[in-house]
């Protein structure tokens, strides 16, 4: 298995990851009812790829406030520990089944850090 190296790799992860999220009834309503992300997936994937390129490759280009976006969602329907756990489980399994190496591990570490900070801030 190869490491995550390109935007195309990140887009591949995001597509498989969202396939899992959208069928998981414990979390899919955030994408189908709370927001309409499911109707704009290609645009959402593009934003996510830019975010992860910045996070993994220090490429820059992501200008949104990721925490504020999720705080706004949290105010509409509170995120619970089980939502963060499902999100991490699906992301980790997607990464682990397709990639290994420094960037793969960094993506999982960054995701855990973000989920942890959000859980603390959103209490």
Q: Shape, please?
A: globular
CATH architecture tag: Orthogonal Bundle
User: How large is the share of residues in beta strands?
Assistant: under 5%
For the largest beta-sheet, the strand count, sense and barrel status come to: none
Q: Which structural category do the helix and sheet elements fall into?
A: mainly alpha
CATH evolutionary superfamily:
Globins
Low-confidence stretches: none
CATH class: Mainly Alpha
What is the number of helices?
6
Mean pLDDT: 94
Please trace the helix and strand order, writing H or E for each element.
HHHHHH
Instruction: Give the domain tally.
Output: 1
Q: Which range best describes the helical content: under 10%, 10-25%, 25-40%, 40-55%, 55-70% or over 70%?
A: over 70%
Rg, rounded, reads 14 Å
Number of DSSP-assigned strands: 0
The CATH topology turns out to be: Globin-like
Terminus-to-terminus distance? 39 Å
Give a quick precis of the structure.
With 123 residues, this protein is mainly α.
Topology, please?
Blueprint: H1 7-23, H2 29-34, H3 41-57, H4 66-76, H5 81-98, H6 102-121
Task: Describe the model.
There is one protein chain. With 123 residues, the protein is mainly alpha-helical. It has a single domain (7-121), classed as Globin-like. It contains six helices and no strands. It has helices at 7-23, 29-34, 41-57, 66-76, 81-98, 102-121. Helix 5 (81-98) packs antiparallel against helix 6 (102-121). 17% of the residues are buried. The model has no long low-confidence stretch (mean pLDDT 94).
């Amino acid at each position: 298995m190869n490491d995550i190296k390109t935007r195309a790799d990140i887009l591949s992860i995001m597509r498989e990851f969202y396939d899992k999220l959208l069928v998981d009834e414990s979390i899919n309503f955030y994408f189908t009812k709370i927001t309409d992300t499911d109707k704009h997936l290609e645009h959402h994937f593009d934003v996510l790829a830019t975010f992860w390129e910045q996070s993994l490759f220090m490429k820059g280009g992501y200008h949104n406030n990721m925490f504020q976006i999720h705080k706004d969602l949290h105010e509409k329907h509170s995120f619970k520990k089980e939502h963060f756990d499902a999100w991490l489980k699906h992301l980790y399994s997607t990464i682990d089944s397709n990639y290994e190496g420094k960037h793969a591990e960094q993506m999982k570490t960054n995701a855990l850090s973000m989920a942890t900070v959000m859980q603390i801030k959103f209490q």
